[in-house]
Design a protein that fits this description.
Rossmann fold; 456 residues; Fe-only Hydrogenase (Larger Subunit), Chain L, domain 3; alpha/beta; single chain; 35% helix; 5-stranded mixed sheet; 2 domains
């Protein structure tokens, strides 16, 4: 086999797996660009299709293919059914965490407000036997706050001899996997070390929440509901179980589309229910999001923080300027005609590739880049915005963007729960435990240089 953009004669993506029983979900590739056609190849029997792949340097191993194949509705229902049997020693507490970018999809599909859609989703999951349904916004709070602090540190430490800028965001698993498995040095040192919201949510559920409930982490089965398939691979990151007693933070990742399919096949009576909190609050919290048009908005939050901390400038509305295309935008802070900060947002792999080439040549003028693999951002994740023909459902996406824009924005700094968790759970924002729990490190693939410079 040969992929359309492959630099090798043969594609090294695996096409078989020994785990025939668990492989049953048809999952289209998140990497396929909007409106483009490419040759599709099956990865294992999980039926994840790799189209327009970035590099065929074994970025998905055979073992990972098997593990991804287990992250499907069958595995979810296996645990649900196990809980209904008499042997309570095998029972697990089922917790589901929902990404905020998934909620507009449910609202559009149900023709409900985003609040009512959240309550409908929560009620349905609990009718299946799920014990807790959480919102991952609090985990994104931590990721954004840690990214803000790290950028300020890097700005002060940056020099020509030891360049620490630009800082590249690390919340998008498709981008991070590409950087780690294909690009390696000199790109990975620029990746922000703050863990993604999904990884931090895993620690919150399997560590903080487990302690509050007097549960061992392996007694909790944690499901993430997300807009893209790359989140399934993110759940397999090697370094993640270290602080969780060998229990992965996310045991299963289901896309928004997979959940809607489950709902469509169910005839269970559903009573709307409120989303749970990690703290056991009885009062339902208000749905909120961060300041991004279709994502968690790292650029806007880090930009405002850096402007204040570094130059004592208070920035209100962040003004974006589109450059090459609508998916590559920049934001600048200027004083007396001099540019103090130059930030950018790069969405889609063509913009990412241009960014990487310029960065390697030393012709990249930005201090910070929010990088997202999906053109259009997280709402465009192929786990929820894909039409039957494999292209992006543009009408649905426009509807989701309108819904998402009306969710109230609240800065991470204003969350009293987050500030309390820094002290109660982590022993302070600057503690070794906070560093270990909220940050990660990146590996180098060790591939030859020619395999890294892929031309589009």
């Amino acid at each position: 086999m040969k992929c359309e953009h492959c630099t090798r004669k043969e594609c090294s993506k695996k096409t078989k797996t020994d785990d025939q029983q668990n492989a049953s979900v048809d999952v289209p590739s998140p990497a396929q660009e909007n409106g483009e056609k490419g040759e599709f190849h099956k990865l294992a029997d999980a039926k994840i299709f790799l189209s327009d792949c970035l590099a065929c340097d074994s970025c998905v191993t055979e073992e990972e293919g098997v593990q991804v194949s287990q992250q499907n509705a069958k595995d979810f229902f296996r645990v649900l059914n196990l809980n209904k049997k008499c042997d309570s020693s095998l029972h697990k507490v089922l917790a589901v965490s929902v990404c905020p970018q998934s909620l507009p999809y449910f609202a559009a599909k149900f023709s409900l407000s985003v609040t009512d859609a959240s309550r409908r989703l929560c009620g349905f999951l609990k009718s299946l036997g799920v014990h807790y349904v959480f919102d991952t916004t609090i985990a994104a709070d931590f990721s954004i706050l840690e990214s803000q602090r790290e950028f300020v540190r890097r700005y002060h430490q940056h020099s020509e001899e030891q360049p620490t800028l630009p800082m590249l965001t690390s919340a998008c698993p498709g981008w991070v996997r590409y950087a780690e498995r294909v690009l390696g040095h000199p790109i990975t040192p620029h990746l922000c070390t703050a863990k993604s919201p999904q990884q931090i949510m895993g620690s919150l559920v399997k560590d903080y929440f487990a302690r509050r409930q007097n549960l061992s982490p392996d007694k909790i089965f944690h499901v993430i509901v997300a807009p893209c398939y790359d989140k399934k691979l993110e759940a397999l990151r090697e370094d993640f179980p270290t602080t969780l007693h060998s229990s992965r933070g996310a045991d299963c990742v289901l896309t928004s589309g997979e959940i809607v399919q489950i709902m469509g096949q169910s005839d269970l009576p559903v009573k709307d229910a409120a989303v749970d909190t990690l703290f056991g609050d009885l009062e339902e919290g208000e749905l909120r999001r961060h300041d991004g048009a279709s994502s968690d908005g790292y650029l806007a939050h880090v930009f405002r923080h850096a402007a204040k901390e570094l130059f004592n400038e208070d920035v209100g509305e962040v003004t974006y300027r589109a450059l090459r295309n609508k998916d590559f935008q920049e934001v600048t802070l200027e004083r007396d005609g001099k540019v103090l900060l130059r930030f950018a947002a790069a969405c889609g792999f063509r913009n990412i590739q241009n960014m990487v080439l310029k960065l390697k040549k030393g012709r990249f003028p930005y201090h910070f880049v929010e990088v997202l693999a999906c053109a259009g951002g997280c709402l465009s994740g192929r786990g929820q915005a894909q039409a039957e023909d494999g292209r992006t459902d543009k009408a649905l996406l426009r509807q989701m963007e309108g819904i998402y824009a009306h969710i109230p924005v609240r800065p991470a700094e204003t969350s009293a729960h987050v500030q309390a968790l820094y002290q109660e759970w982590l022993g302070g924002a600057d503690s070794p435990r906070a560093q270990e729990t909220l940050h990660t490190a990146y590996g180098d693939p060790g591939h030859p240089a020619h395999s890294r410079d892929i031309k589009w």
